[in-house]
Amino acid sequence: MPPRINIPPLTRILLVVLVALSILYNAIRYRQWTDNVPFLVIVTNLALFYPWVFLIATLVEQNAVTLLIAGATILYGGKYLERAWGSAEFGKFLLVVSLISNILTWIVYTPLSALFRHRIGSTTINGSVALQAAFLVAFKQLVPEHTVTIARGFIKFRVKHFPAIFLVANTLSGVVFGTDTALALAWLGFLTSWTYLRFYKRQPDLSSASTGASSSVQGDASETFAFAYFWPDVVHGPIAAVSDGIYNALVALRICTPFSAEDVESSNEQAMARGEGGLPSLLNQGGRRGASGKREEAERRRALALRALDQRLHAATANKPPSVAGTASGPSMLGETRYEPDDREAGAGSGS
After folding, report:
1. C-alpha dihedral over 133, 137, 143, 145, to 10 degrees?
2. pTM for the model
3. What does the pLDDT look like over 201-260, one tens digit per residue?
4. Does the first or last residue of the chain, that is N or C, have fewer Cβ atoms within 10 Å of its Cβ?
5. Which long-range contacts does 285-289 make (Cβ < 8 Å, 24+ apart)?
6. Region of residue 152 (phi > 0: left; psi between -120 and 50: alpha; otherwise: beta)
7. Percent of the chain, pLDDT > 90?
């Protein structure tokens, strides 16, 4: 029996495209002895003639090391996110992050290339750095308290700290080693993915008893997903002051819709439910554990939904004003159930 490929369809397609485009790019690059392959990567002064590169340049890597990193990112990150969100939402997330990050990076570098052409010439923009930053932001939203252990538990990191570590590493690399395009892609991928997940992506509402479109909410208003919580506690205050000022300005300009108190409360409950659910093993490939992992994930989601429904019913019962009949005759209609035998049953019971 041939082995089953336990990779979701969109993730599988991305891996194939990543390998194919990277091999094609490097074959042309070494044949022509130039990094400028304008129909595969973004070349600042030629990109408008090949507009599709704003989408595909994300899946073009220049060497074997970055190709392996990109492949691992898409394989393990894509597997989890595609199963958590579904192929359609995962594809929309990839499209938003890739297009916006590449376009903004091109906008940054095009005037620089024009002003300092004698020094830097045209700039080539490509690689999956923006996707790597976006995946870390998505994991920060879904499983912020999950702990990743390295070297047999000697090194431990919380998932919520990964985006900051990634950004600091790319910033230092850009300054020290001159990988400035990766620096720009990392920051723009981070900001684009956070903005999309925070304000625009529709999330399933676990606290809602309804189904369909009304059972989802737009954005994630939870306090733990606020911009300041991506950084160490000591700098929460200054970062929160700046980010809140920008947010208030965007709300005043009607670019962003303000979150209501109900939105924040609902998002906090869902964030707590996701945190308690934990992170399934990403290395669990097929076989008997693969089937059991799917059953455990389904049971976990079912339990979270039932618990949220139970909490909602209790809240509705607690907020309901007492009825007149309940006030006059003692316990309310929803308070308790009693069984009182009639006289015939009582007589039969005493006779026996």
Report:
1. 90
2. 0.77
3. 987 765 555 555 556 778 899 988 999 999 988 998 999 999 999 999 988 988 888 888
4. N
5. 285/6, 286/3, 286/4, 286/6
6. left
7. 49
* CA-closest candidate to residue 88, choices 201, 192, 206, 5: 201
Question: Residue with structure tokens 């300009």?
Answer: 253
CB burial class (10 A; 0-12, 13-18, 19+) of residue 108? middle
Q: 14 exposed, middle or buried (CB, 10 Å; 0-12, 13-18, 19+)?
A: buried
End-to-end CA distance of the chain: 68
Which candidate, 194, 199, 196, places its Cα nearest to that of 251? 199
Identify the weakest region by mean pLDDT among 50-64, 173-187, 209-223, 230-244. 209-223
**Encoding tokens for residue 146?**
């999950």
Q: How far is CA 331 from CA 70, 311, 314, 335, 348, in A?
A: 64, 22, 17, 6, 29
**CB atoms near residue 227 (< 10 Å):** 18
CA torsion sign for 203, 206, 208, 212 is positive
Nearest 5°: phi and psi at 39? -90, 0
